[in-house]
Amino acid sequence: QVQLVESGGELVHAGGSLRLTCAASGGTFKNYRVGWFRQAPGKEREFVGGLTRSGGRPDYADSVAGRFAIFRDNGANTVVLQMNNLKPEDTAVYYCAAGSSYGWPYWGLGTQVTVSS
Question: Taking phi first (over 0 means left), then psi (-120 to 50 degrees means alpha), and beta for anything else, what does residue 42 get?
């Protein structure tokens, strides 16, 4: 079973950048697809982006494509979400998840990102 811990969330001004990190433990991390999700107040959790087990074929939501990038380091058991040109609408709790094409059984507790205008 995989345990996931996110870090790096903070308050940032619009147009700024943040790097979120997800640290995995307790399982064979390289066997899982990884993804980032977010949930804003009063809204449902939404997919932000994901990577295959090898780190190839990144997939992004239209709302973040061209501004966000995901990287994974299977040797270090980490996944990074690099967020650039942040907008107030990016404000949310960001979650890291691990799974496969059948679903996302493993989740972290989330890290808060707040973008001020």
Answer: left
The parts of the chain modelled with pLDDT lower than 50 are none
Look up residue 51 and give its two tokens: 């990577």
15 contacts 86 by C-beta, under 8 angstroms: yes
Q: Are 112 and 90 in contact (CB under 8 A)?
A: no
d(CA 33, CA 85) in angstroms, rounded, equals 26
Identify the three-state secondary structure at position 6. Answer: strand
Query: 102: which DSSP letter?
Result: T
pLDDT, tens digit, 9 for 90 and up, residues 93-106: 999 999 988 999 99
Q: At a CB cut-off of 8 Å and minimum separation 6, what does 83 contact? A: 17, 18, 19, 20, 64, 67, 68, 90, 113
